[in-house]
Amino acid sequence: xxxxxxxxxxxxxxxxxxxxxxxxxxxxxxxxxxxxxxxxxxxxxxxxxxxxxxxxxxxxxxxxxxxxxxxxxxxxxxxxxxxxxxxxxxxxxxxxxxxxxxxxxxxxxxxxxxxxxxxxxxxxxxxxxxxxxxxxxxxxxxxxxxxxxxxxxxxxxxxxxxxxxxxxxxxxxxxxxxxxxxxxxxxxxxxxxxxxxxxxxxxxxxxxxxxxxxxxxxxxxxxxxxxxxxxxxxxxxxxxxxxxxxxxxxxxxxxxxxxxxxxxxxxxxxxxxxxxxxxxxxxxxxx
Length: 287
Hints:
This protein has 287 residues and is mostly helical. It is 81% helix and 0% strand.
């Protein structure tokens, strides 16, 4: 098959796995504290990646930029916890749409932190996307859902963490960044998870483990997708997660997306797709 078709298939599989992960998190969130879910996410993830870290050895895992690692992983861990809280307490379609605002925040954060140059059309797309976020949160309503604000904050934190990866990647290989990210997650969430611990029963063990397993496989699918196909052709397929989220939310949790979710999500997705295509064109331009 052509590379773009293979990339689209890989990304479709990855998006589906991430959606299944959200369903499992939402189901488990009725009983387990988000910090316990996070501990399983990082602990099992560390076990899965352990062979890679062992092969690297202490010499390759050592870093001279521990402060930057701590800052980056702190933001990412806050974002991960916020995502769990949002998925558990909001309709899946709403939570998924809010998380897709991450590219919008990435544009702004990259300008502030690393001085990235952004053209006028991309700024317009970013503003349109933020209008979509505002529509979903509806600040003019009688009450603002605080969980929605947590979701937006999580998207901002993840966007900032991703920009810091660009800074770290000048000296740090990806697997070293992953190592400190997982170690940090285990250290941070062990205490709170023990404090709020609920012992899993039967299939719950498998469901908790699957959060990390499915996330790892989903990330692998995304890597394969962008390795096989062009980013501007493959990338927009990720937004099929909104369809999965709406279907799972409706059939499994009796969630019916509001008209505000549809309008806001459409603006967010349209602007994010434009930003992705603009990034792809910039990457393909001769230097």
